[in-house]
């Protein structure tokens, strides 16, 4: 039986790809070895280290005493806190503490940012993150994620109110997420396209797996928690009725934003978290959930909206501000906006010609 023999050029490609680590890729993207470029590369490397530590914990959580379940506390969001939320939050703090890279860490799990004063004279960056997104999936071994955003430090924040963070999403200099699924994948952008790295446990390295990802202009997937139908504005109900009545749509909803977004990034479609009666501004937090994903999706040729405004233009009133989120393929987000902007009630949307 003939052995599959890689051709020399295939061997060279495979070896080169296996050597394209995250930190090397960041420097390649920046075409620079400046201090700023090195800092950004080092920050991404620390995020990768946090991802490896959390991935390791998740992969054995069922076997580790006290890894799963609730802490019995409620966070600033009013949500019950999982033990994994706290563990992951502490991992990010630990990996950045001695790094000299960031002055502040702003997290879904902390009411106020965590300051690393010894880094502030040096660190010119703030890391905003959701350490475990979708923690309702943790105890049942389904996919969860983390979302991160990197912003430049502006001013010295002497009163600790972090007002310089209350700026629109276009102030982000980098953003990404980690998906803890069958494999651990880190997706990021520094404004030069969207790129995915897969953790190779045998190497302990994130290796480049997809470069310059482009979200399709249209996809069949709509991703929303239809259990909230009774709480939605009529325009959202009209949109849902539309996709229920037209061929070519498929519902997919995993209960973890990162996994649902990852599916849409690669296959197209739209993720929706509209405002509800109980949460008129929606559930998802702007600075460390929606805005980082909006940064990515625009880099990938897609679109993110509050329904009436480009998500990246939204200026938060507070660190934990929420917004409705409609994100994904530009045609599919535009259709949702069409219903929301109420034009659809008078005439058939132009895109209906598609079906
Ligand atoms: P619901 C997880 O708690 C999360 O913040 C996102 O990851 C997810 O998309 C959303 O909430 C799920 O919320 O109301 O559908 O359970």
UniProtKB/TrEMBL annotation:
Q: Which cofactor does it need?
A: Mg(2+)
Cofactor binding mode and count: Binds 2 magnesium ions per subunit.
Provide the protein's localization: Cytoplasm
Q: Where does substrate bind?
A: 133-136, 225, 253, 283
**Which CDD domains does the entry link to?**
FBPase
The highest taxon in the source lineage is Bacteria
Fructose-1-6-bisphosphatase class I N-terminal domain residues? 21-210
Q: What is its EC number?
A: 3.1.3.11
Q: Which Pfam families match?
A: FBPase (PF00316), FBPase_C (PF18913)
Class of enzymatic activity (EC top level): hydrolase
Task: Please identify the protein, giving its name as recorded.
Answer: Fructose-1,6-bisphosphatase class 1
What is the native source organism of this protein?
A: uncultured Coleofasciculus sp
């Amino acid at each position: 039986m003939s052995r599959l023999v890689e051709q020399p050029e295939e061997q060279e490609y495979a070896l080169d790809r296996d050597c394209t680590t995250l930190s090397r890729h960041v420097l390649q993207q920046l075409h620079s070895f400046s201090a700023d470029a090195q800092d950004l590369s080092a920050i991404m490397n620390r995020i990768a280290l946090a991802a490896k530590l959390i991935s390791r914990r998740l992969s054995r959580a069922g076997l580790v005493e006290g890894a799963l379940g609730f802490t019995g506390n409620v966070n600033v969001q009013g949500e019950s806190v999982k033990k994994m939320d706290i563990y992951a939050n502490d991992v990010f703090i630990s990996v950045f503490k001695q790094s000299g890279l960031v002055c502040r860490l702003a997290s879904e799990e902390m009411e106020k940012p965590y300051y690393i004063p010894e880094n502030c004279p040096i660190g010119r960056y703030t890391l905003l993150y959701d350490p475990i997104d979708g923690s309702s999936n943790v105890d049942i071994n389904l996919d969860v994620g983390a979302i991160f955003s990197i912003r430049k430090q502006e001013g010295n924040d002497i009163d600790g109110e972090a007002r310089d963070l209350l700026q629109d999403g276009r102030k982000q200099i980098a953003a990404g997420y980690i998906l803890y699924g069958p494999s651990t994948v880190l997706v990021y952008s520094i404004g030069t396209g969207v790129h995915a790295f897969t953790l190779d446990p045998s190497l302990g390295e994130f290796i480049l797996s997809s470069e310059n990802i482009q979200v399709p202009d249209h996809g069949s997937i709509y991703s929303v928690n239809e259990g909230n139908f009774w709480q939605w504005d009529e325009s959202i109900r009209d949109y849902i009725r539309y996709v229920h009545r037209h061929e070519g749509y498929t519902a997919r909803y995993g209960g973890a934003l990162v996994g649902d977004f990852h599916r849409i990034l690669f296959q197209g479609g739209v993720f929706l978290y509209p405002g509800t009666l109980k949460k008129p501004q929606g559930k998802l937090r702007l600075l460390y959930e929606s805005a980082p994903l909006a940064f990515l999706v625009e880099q990938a040729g897609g679109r993110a909206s509050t329904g009436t405004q480009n998500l990246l233009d939204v200026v938060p009133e507070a660190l934990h501000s929420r917004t409705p989120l409609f994100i994904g393929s530009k045609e599919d987000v535009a259709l949702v906006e069409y219903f929301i902007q109420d034009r659809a009630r008078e005439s058939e949307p132009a895109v209906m010609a598609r079906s």
